[in-house]
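User: Teach me something about this protein's shape.
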Amino acid sequence: MFAVDHILIADSVLEASFACQLQACRGACCVQGAAGAPLEPGERFVLEALVPTLRSTLRPEAQALIASHGPWEKVGTDRYAIRCTPEGACVFAVYDEAGIARCAIQQAYEQGRIDFPKPISCHLYPLRVERRHGLEILHYEKISLCDAARTHGARCGIALVDFLEEPLVRRYGRAWYERFWTLWTERRQLLGRVPQQTGGTEPC
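Assistant: First, the predicted structure itself:
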């Protein structure tokens, strides 16, 4: 583990390669899991404010659930998560014509309809933020749903920290990210840990 300012980073990020492959995973991280995506406390109110804009694009069962219970739920002491429909899908998950789960929040952001990209935990995934004794710890959550993303990243030489540059800058700032990237490079050289690359014939 190494530190950048007040943020601790697990060494598992040193050799991780990653690049999402929606055609393979079909957006499974939006519809599978034990609970909805974690929320920062202030993001609860952002989601509530977005509901009127997004409501017509959501699935009928998600609209009904939000109308009766709201878009988020409390899951522990000072811990909150996006609410999910009974089958496990995020209330903001929508499906395209190919049956791939997409994020209604992200779609609206990309269309210029809102100015909130998505909850930061979703944006940072597969990095997870853990809080302990006043510190933040970033660790890499490695799950089988993302096997295709790891394979694609390794084939194309895309390191996890490069793939997640935008959300890391969003959360911690450009100056922090540049310090992080420099220390990440130095530490992986020191430990002999480099992002995995496999090569291959499929296009990147």
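Now, about its shape. The longest strand covers residues 127-132. The chain has a mean pLDDT of 91. If you'd like, I can walk through any region in more detail.
User: That's plenty for now, thanks!
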